[in-house]
Task: inverse folding
């Protein structure tokens, strides 16, 4: 799928600080469902024939599966250490929900650590540019205690990540 074809009435994919990102074309209030992360189910098994990029872009879905966006909108959602959206699972689907008011033209970004469970082997160097950038992004349980508690109390981390 081409990036241009991903454009909806609310969202567009274009060049961002880091690669490509998703930008809002309208204002969103806090708590709004922006879009669904769609894709195919893949497992985390290292013997499965999946390339590193696909693996890195996949969203943890439960103990056994991840959702790979396969070039759809979810592939372009960047990380920020000061996120304005979160990932939530409802009725067997993953959704992107705003955690602050968002103005038209803003890039949407969530904290990748909120979908990295304790058995995931993954980390990345961060270049989000925020004042409180953590530098390296790792599994949820590696977060500073205060931030972890904030994410849990504000329901910014999906339940299934806490339970793995
Ligand atoms: Zn950062």
Result:
């Amino acid at each position: 799928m081409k990036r241009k074809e991903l454009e909806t009435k609310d969202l567009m994919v274009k060049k961002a600080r880091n690669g490509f990102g998703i930008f809002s074309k309208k204002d969103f209030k806090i708590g709004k469902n922006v879009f669904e992360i769609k894709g195919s189910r893949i497992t985390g098994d290292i013997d499965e024939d999946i390339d590193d990029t696909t693996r890195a872009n996949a969203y943890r879905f439960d103990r056994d599966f991840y959702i790979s966006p396969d070039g759809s909108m979810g592939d372009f959602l960047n990380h920020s250490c000061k996120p304005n959206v979160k990932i939530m699972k409802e009725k067997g689907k993953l959704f992107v929900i705003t955690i602050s008011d968002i103005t038209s033209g803003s890039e949407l970004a969530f904290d990748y650590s909120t979908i990295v469970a304790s058995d995931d082997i993954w980390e990345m160097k961060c270049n989000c540019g925020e004042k409180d950038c953590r530098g390296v992004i790792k599994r949820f349980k590696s977060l500073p205690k205060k931030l972890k508690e904030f994410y849990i109390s504000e329901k910014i981390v999906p339940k299934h990540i806490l339970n793995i």
Observations:
- The chain has a mean pLDDT of 94.
- The chain has three helices and twelve strands.
- The helical segments are 52-57, 145-153, 159-162.
